Amino acid sequence: MEAVLKQPQPTPEVTPKDHKKLSALALFKRGILVFLGAVLVAVGLEIFLVPNQVIDGGVVGISIMLSHLSGLNLGIFLFVLNIPFFFLGYKQIGKTFTISSIFGVIVMSIGTTLLHPVRPLTEDPLLAAVFGGMILGIGVGLVIRHGGSLDGTEILAIVFNKRIPLSVGQTVMFINLFILGSAGFVFTWDRAMYSLMAYFIAFKAIDVTIEGFNETKSIWIISDNPEILGEAILNRLGRGVTYLSGQGAFSGEDKKVIFCIITRLEEAKLKSIVEDIDPQAFLAVGNIHDIQGGNFKKRSIH
User: Fold this and answer.
1) Tens-digit pLDDT profile for residues 279-301
2) Could you list the residue ranges that cross the membrane (predicted)?
């Protein structure tokens, strides 16, 4: 009896152009969170910042000043001034980003219009800057985290980055400093200072919303006792480790490099473990803002 040998079927090649569409549930979740973020931004603007003549950076700040000077509704400027950036976003980032951004800007514009007659919660500009900046930052962070944007400044910075010797972050900073400084001429200079405070608070709130409170750390250790050290980290800290092959450029010696991921609360304990086992070990710690795939669950150590 002859055995029939089956030829293995070639695995279909995955190209960078292949794109998996989001499921209906994922799209619904994204839409809800972008909607919630845009509503929070509208609340931060109309209930705190705008009534107290405190502005934010970017298109939002320009819109607040134009609304104050012209007497027209803030929502009109928020939508109209963002239209050019929708086209730039489509070319630079993609269709899903553009659709999410358009949806978010529409919700934000309608939200500011509906909330405009509502009385502000405080007339103290300091409280308005703190709480308005915090709420606005959380809202913007939610939208960015789920694939959209409510302000075209960063898209503009990406375009300018190809033509000027500045990073995207530096370009955004210079644009926003110019806008926030303009508040001193439109309102008063103390309002410009409150605006700078609100912008900083919003900036930090965006970071926390996008990255979360539970910041993780990447650990790289070069030791003469890598197996003992790796076992100690596994048993005493409950974290898995990966051994990487390395070679010293100066000595030419082959080394095992220990790599692991921990939370910031575990950093002190890990350092004490390394100090106990190999005080001469080289230890490098870096911040990680996101982890995807793999298994980051902590093992029981008791």
Assistant:
1) 999 999 988 766 666 665 556 55
2) 27-50, 70-90, 97-114, 126-144, 164-186
Q: What are the tens digits of pLDDT across the range 164-207?
A: 776 656 677 788 888 998 889 999 999 999 999 999 999 888 88
Read off the tokens for 53: 């003549």
CA dist 203 → 134, 153, 260 (Å): 9, 14, 30
Tokens of 64: 């607040």
